[in-house]
Amino acid sequence: MADPKRRRRPHLVSTPVRKKAVITIPQETREQLDLQEGDQLVVAAEDDRITPTPASVVPDDQAWFWTPAWQAKENEVDEALAEGEQGEVFHDSEAFLQSLADEAGLDLREIKRRADA
């Protein structure tokens, strides 16, 4: 005989359609699919069924570009360009690499030595 304290959960969970066709996805389902507020769903009608499927508007391998920190830098560059700044121009790769090393406080010769090792 089954344990009377153990409740069987139903296989299907229903949710009402509210004003403006709003529905609530049950918490257990949201947790299982890691759905967060603001996530996008593709909604399709298939054989008299509505099928919402989690979708990423931005591919996962490109999400870094849309982070607040990266977008702040993009805005900084856009503003600089709008003000007429052109940035520094390098005529060879060596000068460019030296500039990066200097900015980072690194010794370019040491970096090259280690890369060749």
Task: Describe the structure in brief.
This protein is α+β, with helices and mostly antiparallel strands and 117 residues long.
Tell me the distance between the termini.
71 Å
Number of helices: 4
Largest sheet: 2 strands, antiparallel
Note the overall shape. Answer: elongated
Major β-sheet strand ordering: 1-2
Please tell me how large the radius of gyration is: 27 Å
- Helix amount: 25-40%
Q: Segments where pLDDT lies below 50 for 5+ residues?
A: none
Mean pLDDT: 88
Strand tally: 2
**What's the order of the H and E elements?**
HEEHHH
User: Which structural class should the secondary elements be placed in?
Assistant: alpha+beta
Q: How large a portion of the residues is in β-strands, by DSSP E?
A: 5-15%
Describe this structure in words.
By secondary structure, the chain is α+β, with helices and mostly antiparallel strands. 37% of the residues lie in helices and 12% in strands. It has 4 helices and 2 strands; from the N terminus they run αββααα. A two-stranded antiparallel ribbon has the order 1-2. The longest helix has 15 residues, at 68-82. The radius of gyration is 27 Å and the shape is elongated. The protein starts with 26 loop residues before the first helix and ends with a helix. The mean pLDDT is 88.
Considering the chains and any ligands shown, give keywords for the structure.
two-stranded antiparallel sheet, 37% helix, alpha+beta, 4 helices, 117 residues, elongated, 2 strands, single chain
